[in-house]
Amino acid sequence: MNYIGGRDLKDYFKMNVQDIVADITTNYLTEELFLAKDFGQLPDRSQIIHIISELRQVMFPGYFSHEKLDCTLAPYFIGQKLAIIFESLSKQVELALLYNKAEAKENAKEEAERITVDFLKELPKIQKVLLTDIQAAFDGDPAAGSKELVIFSYPGLYAIFVYRMAHELYLRNVPFIPRIMTEHAHSKTGIDIHAGATIGKYFFIDHGTGIVIGETTIIGDNVNLYQGVTIGALSTRGGQSLAGVKRHPTIEDNVTIYSGASILGGDTVIGHDCVIGGNAFITSSVEPYSRVSIKNPDLYIKGKSQDL
Amino acid sequence: MNYIGGRDLKDYFKMNVQDIVADITTNYLTEELFLAKDFGQLPDRSQIIHIISELRQVMFPGYFSHEKLDCTLAPYFIGQKLAIIFESLSKQVELALLYNKAEAKENAKEEAERITVDFLKELPKIQKVLLTDIQAAFDGDPAAGSKELVIFSYPGLYAIFVYRMAHELYLRNVPFIPRIMTEHAHSKTGIDIHAGATIGKYFFIDHGTGIVIGETTIIGDNVNLYQGVTIGALSTRGGQSLAGVKRHPTIEDNVTIYSGASILGGDTVIGHDCVIGGNAFITSSVEPYSRVSIKNPDLYIKGKSQDL
Amino acid sequence: MNYIGGRDLKDYFKMNVQDIVADITTNYLTEELFLAKDFGQLPDRSQIIHIISELRQVMFPGYFSHEKLDCTLAPYFIGQKLAIIFESLSKQVELALLYNKAEAKENAKEEAERITVDFLKELPKIQKVLLTDIQAAFDGDPAAGSKELVIFSYPGLYAIFVYRMAHELYLRNVPFIPRIMTEHAHSKTGIDIHAGATIGKYFFIDHGTGIVIGETTIIGDNVNLYQGVTIGALSTRGGQSLAGVKRHPTIEDNVTIYSGASILGGDTVIGHDCVIGGNAFITSSVEPYSRVSIKNPDLYIKGKSQDL
After folding, report:
1. What is the pLDDT of residue C119?
2. Which candidate from C28, C33, C186 shows the least CB-CB separation from B147?
C-alpha cells in the first residue's frame, strides 16, 4: 500500500514510512485516548478564542475594533454581537457536553442553548465588575496614566476579564471550555487563574507573569496581587482523590500580596487588610490587619564579588 | 425592536436578548469610559505590532523575512521600509496624541510626523546598541552557539529590542504606543520592561520569564539579568500621586543579578561590579564590588520524605 | 537618489530619510552579522512552527484538527502527514546545516533527509512516552478532570511535547531548529526547556510559568515540577568556554519539586524519591528519600499593617 501518493520523495523516506505509519497506527489502536473521538467531536479552541474576542468587543466597544458607537447605534451593535456569540458559543457548549458524556444526550442542544443564554444574561453584571477592576488598576499603578490604557494594554485586566467569563461557564458545569479560555489567557499573560476560583470586585493584578490562583481559592474585594504570587495547594499528591476538596487558601478583603509570595493550603486564611511582603512563604492563617515580611537581611554580603 | 435581524435563533435567546442589550446599553451610558471615544479614535494595536515587525526587518534584514540583501540593494530596501514605517507610525502617533487631549489639537498631524522622523533618526544608533546586546548574550550564555541564534530566537533580545524602540517614543511623550509595544513583548516573552526605564549597552537577559523592570529604573552598561528578577517599587499604594516619582532602583555598570532576586525602592543603588545571588531580596543599597547571597542552608532536610 | 518612490510623504521625512538610510547601510557594512547571509539562507521560523503543529496532529489526531479517524483511515492520514512533514522539515534542516558551515556542504540535502527520516522513525516511541506524560498530569492534578483536557489545554504537556521533538533534532546536531522549537513553546507557555536536557517518562509540569531547565540537565522518570522552578547553572560567567560542560543538576526518579525552588550546579544531584519544598534554594546534592523545605516562619508578622 502506498500511503504517500505520487509525491517525489527520497527513497530513504519511502523505505521507512510504512513502518512508521504502522507503528503509529498501532499506538492509536492500543490506546483508546487517541481514537475515542468517534462518539463525539471536541470543542474547537480557535472558535473559543474568537468568542473571547467577540465578548471583549461587547464589553469594551471601540477599544479592540473600529466601530464608532453612540447611544442610538449601541443596541444594534450589541444585539448583533450577542446573536453571533450565542450561535457560536452554544455550538461549542453542545460539543463539550456531548463529548464528556458517554451516555446518549438527546437534550444536549437545548441544554447548551439554555446555559449560553444564562451566561449572556450575566454579561451586564460582569461588565460592571470589570469597571471596578479597571478602577483598581488605575488606583494601584502610578504608571497607569489613564483608564483607557488599562483596558487597552494591561495583561492583568485581560486575564481577569477572561477569568470572569470562564467562571460563569464553570459555575454551569460546562466541560473543557472554561479551562481552554483561562489557558488562553495564561498563554498570553503568564497569569494562570483557574476558572473555578471565586474572586471579588476591585481586583488588581500588576505585571502578573507567574501568578497562579488555584481552583478552590476564595478572594474577597479589593485585593492586589503582584507578579509571581502563588495561591496554591500544599500538596497535590492525592491526585484525583482531591478533586472537589478545598485545597487552596482564602484571601479576605483589602489584602495586598507582593511579588513572589506563596500562600498555600485549603485551611489558610489571610485576614482582611493584611499586607504580605515579597517572597513570603505562608502555609498557615494570618490575622486581619497583619503585615508579614520575610526577615530582611538574611543575606551574606561580601566586599569584592567572587564567583557565586 | 428586533436587534438580531432575521437569524433563526432559539426562542429562549430571543426572549432574553432585549433585556441584555438594554442592560449593556445602560452600562455604556452610565460609564463614559465605554463611549468616550467620539472625540477620537484609539491607536490600533495590530498596526503597532506590525510596525514592530517592520522595524525588526530593518534592524536585522534577512533574519525575519526573505530578502537577499547586498550593499547595492540595501539602501532601496531600507528606504522603502522606512517610508512604510513613517506612514504607518505617524498615523498611530497622531491618533494617540489626539485621543489623549480633550482640547482640540490642530497641529497633531505635524507633531506626529515630527516625532516619527525624530524616532527614525535614532534607528542607526539603536542598531549599534543592539549589536552590543547580541554580543553580551553570546558572551553570557554557554548554550548560545552563535550570534545568529541570539538574533533569531532569544526572547531576551526580542524584549530588549522592543524596549529600545518603545523607549524612544516614551522620551517623546507619545501616549499609549510605548506601553502597547512593551506589553506585546511582555506577552511573547514574559519579560516586562517599562518603556520609561533607562538601560545601558551590553544588556543581557537570559531565559527572562517573570522579569519586571519598573518605569523609573536606571540600569548601567554590561548588566546581566536572569529569569524572575524584579526591579520594582517598595510599595505602590500611593497610586497616581506617585506618578513621576523615582520609585525603582538604580543598577550600576557590570552587575549580574541571578534568578528570582528582587531589588526594590527608588533610593536603592546596586553599586557597580556587584553580583546578586538567586532569590535575594534587597531593599537598601549595596556597595560596589559586593557579592550578595541568601544564607544558603536555611533548609530543613529530613531523611525519608513525607507530605509537605 | 530617491529611495522612497513617488509616495506623498512629508518634507521633514524626505529631508532626513537619506541620512538614516546611509547610516543604517553603513551599519550593515561594518558589521558582517547583518549581511553575512549571502552564503546561505536561515531556516524559516514560521515553517518550523507549522511543522510543530503538523507533528501534534499526528501525535494526537482529532484534538487540534477536524479529521474523523478510524482504524481504516488512520494509515492514510498518517502517511500523508508524514510526507508533508518530511518535505518541509528536511528543507529546513538543510538550510540550518548549510547556514552553519562556512565550508561548502555538497551533501547537505542528503544529510538533511537522512536526519529527518531518522527523526520520523522516533515518532512512535515518542508518542508512547507522551502517553506516560499525560497519565502523570492526570494523576498529579486534582483539577484535571480528564486526560482529554490535559492533551487539549495543558501548557505543561505542550512544552514537554515540543521538547521531546526538539530533543531528537538536538541529538542529531541540527543547528538552530531545536532552539527555535523550544523558544516557541517558551513563548506560548512560559516554560523554557532546553532541547539538550535529558528527561525521562511520566514527566509532569503543573502551571509551569517561569520554569527553566538547562541544557545539560538530566531528569529521571516520574518527576513533577511546579511553576517557577529553575534547574540551572551556578554561574555562567565562563561564557562560551563552558559550552558542552555539564553545568546543570541531575534529578533522579520520583522527585517532586514545588514552585519557585532553584536547584543549581552541574554536580548537584537530587536523589530519587525526594520532595523539594517551595522556594528552596539548593546548590549541593541531596540524599534519596529526603524532604527539603525552607525554614517556615522566617517571617516578621506585625499586627496592624503599615507601609512595607
Report:
1. 97
2. C33
Interface test with A, best of C71, C211, C299 (most A CBs within 10 A): C299
For residue range C37-95, what is the model confidence (pLDDT) as tens digits?
Answer: 554 678 999 999 999 999 999 998 878 776 667 777 888 889 999 999 999 999 999 99
Contact C272, C222 (CB under 8 A): no
- CB-based contact, A82 to chain B, within 8 Å: yes
Question: How far is the C-alpha of B306 from the C-alpha of A284, rounded, in Å?
Answer: 18
Looking at chain A from residue 102 to 121, which residues have their Cβ under 8 Å from any Cβ of chain B?
113-114, 116-117, 120-121
Asked if C271 contacts C286 with a C-beta cutoff of 8 angstroms, the reply is yes
C4 CB-near residues (< 8 Å, 6+ apart): B79, B80, B82, B83, C14, C17
Nearest to A291 among C139, C206, C302 (CB): C302
Is A266 at the interface with chain B, CB within 8 A?
A: no
Question: Chain B partners of C190 at a C-beta cutoff of 8 Å?
Answer: 190, 209-210
pLDDT band at B142 (very low <50, low <70, confident <90, very high): confident
Counting Cα atoms < 13 Å in the Cβ hemisphere of A286 gives 35
**Chains adjacent to A (≥3 CB pairs closer than 8 angstroms):** B, C
Chain A residue nearest residue C134, CA to CA:
A33
Give Cα C177 distance to the centre of its chain.
10
Amino acid identity of residue B37, one-letter, is: K
A228 neighbourhood in chain B, CB within 8 Å: 210, 228, 230
* DSSP letter assigned to residue A4: T
Cα separations in angstroms, B97 against B104, B108, C168: 11, 6, 51
Residue C39 is given by DSSP the state G
Bridge partners, A250 (sequence order): A218, A269
What's the confidence (pLDDT) of residue B2? 44
Q: Pick the most confident of B20-24, B253-257, C102-106.
A: B253-257
pTM: 0.91
- Please name the residue of chain B whose CA is at the shortest distance from the CA of residue C213: B207
**Rounded Cα gap, residues B45 and A153, in angstroms:** 9
Identity (one letter) of the amino acid at A23? D
Q: Find the helix or strand (DSSP H, E) in which A152 lies.
A: helix A147-153
Q: What is the DSSP code (8-state) at residue A39?
A: G
What digits encode the pLDDT tens for the residues A169-218? 999 999 999 999 999 999 999 999 999 999 999 999 999 999 999 999 99
Q: Hey, is the C-beta of A266 within 8 angstroms of any chain C C-beta?
A: no
How far, in Å, CA of A7 to CA of A1, rounded?
Answer: 14
ipTM of the complex: 0.89
Q: What is the 3-state secondary structure (H, E, C) of B178-223?
A: HHHHHHHHHHHHCCEECCCCEECCCCEEECCCCCEECCCCEECCCC
Give one DSSP letter per residue of C49-80, joined into a string: HHHHHHHHHHHSTTTSS-----TTTHHHHHHH
What is the edge-to-edge ordering of all strands in the sheet holding A269-270? Answer: A198-199, A218-219, A250-251, A269-270
- Contact at 8 Å (CB) between A280 and C299? yes
Asked whether the beta carbons of B195 and B182 are under 8 A apart, the reply is yes
CA atoms within 13 A on the CB side of C185: 30
Give the burial string for C70-90 (b: 16+ CB within 10 Å, else e): eeeebbbbbbbbbbbbbbbbb
Bridge-partner residues for C269, per DSSP? Answer: C250
Question: Is residue B204 within 8 angstroms of chain C, CB to CB?
Answer: no
| Partner B, chain C 144-173, Cβ-Cβ below 8 Å | none
Locate the chain A residue with the closest alpha carbon to C208.
Answer: A210
Best to test chain B binding among A93, A121, A207 (most B CBs inside 10 Å): A207
Instruction: Characterize the bridge pairing of strands C299-302 and A291-294.
Output: antiparallel
User: What residue in A sits closest to B213 (Cα-Cα)?
Assistant: A207
